[in-house]
Design a protein that fits this description.
single chain, alpha+beta, four-stranded mixed β-sheet, three-stranded antiparallel β-sheet, 9 strands, about 15% helix, about 15% strand
């Protein structure tokens, strides 16, 4: 599965599309969007390993300010992605013989995921947005929905309690914001991330996503031990290599 949390730095990818096509994408009616969203309020939080402050990839803990945004309530399903694929003439992603429907879609590249979100006027979430939402708007919560390892089975599908393929979305309890499967089920592609967390007083330095092949993924999966489903845990993988344990959800900025 994914390489353990590599040090790479990227900007959000800007998608260039024709005026006619972009108009089609940007003005889709809400009824045409094949997923529900949850409003995530503005706020500020301390990002990273706020528990032990020992994870080298998630320290130093640093303060981040968040503008309001909306995030898909569930991981994108095969049903939703298949509709997009048919409309855009893309091949359907492999379901590995386990069925499609409301299972979290996997076997999609970073670009596939980014294109899906853009088609409906959304984008992939940033790493900051993802962690803030997973942690109930930035609270010190170890797993999405609970701070207790004993209760994690109620909220996350991981290697100790799950089948070895992506499951139907929403089958576990949501976190405090109403988001399902932020911990476990499938890893999720992130739109952008930075190399190391900034030292006190410094701002993160972003690089163009075109300059590197690696992307951050978050949340852990059915292949992961519970520790990898923690809300601050970071992993990475190649952008153009799909995996049967890697999917995504979409986000969109909101006006303040």
């Amino acid at each position: 599965m994914p390489t353990k949390r590599p040090p790479y730095t990227f900007f959000c990818l800007l998608i260039t599309i024709s005026l006619t096509t972009s108009a089609c994408f940007l003005f889709k009616k809400a009824s045409d969007v094949p997923f529900e969203t949850v409003h995530i309020p503005a706020g500020a939080f301390m990002m990273g390993d706020v528990f032990e402050e020992t994870d080298m990839d998630a320290t130093p803990v640093h303060r981040v300010v968040i503008a309001p945004f909306e995030l898909a309530k569930h991981e994108i399903t095969y049903a939703a992605y298949d509709t997009f694929a048919v409309q855009t003439g893309r091949p359907l992603p492999d379901d590995n013989g386990y069925g499609r429907g409301t299972r979290a879609v996997v076997n999609v590249t970073w670009q596939d995921a980014d294109d899906f979100c853009a088609f409906y006027g959304f984008r992939l979430p940033t790493e900051v947005e993802w962690e803030y939402a997973a942690r109930d708007a930035g609270k010190a919560i170890r797993f999405a929905g609970t701070d207790s390892l004993e209760a994690v089975d109620d909220f996350a599908r991981h290697i100790d309690n799950s089948v070895l393929y992506s499951f139907q979305v929403g089958s576990k309890e949501p976190n405090g914001l109403g988001l399902h499967d932020m911990s476990g089920n499938v890893y999720e592609w992130i739109g952008a991330y930075y190399e190391f967390y900034p030292k006190a007083g410094n701002k993160p330095v972003y690089k163009d996503l075109d300059k590197g092949a690696m992307r951050i993924i978050r949340g852990g999966s059915f292949k992961s031990p519970p520790i990898h489903t923690q809300t601050y845990w970071r992993s990475g993988t190649l952008a153009d290599i799909p995996s049967n344990a890697l999917g995504f959800r979409c986000a969109r900025s909101l006006l303040q």
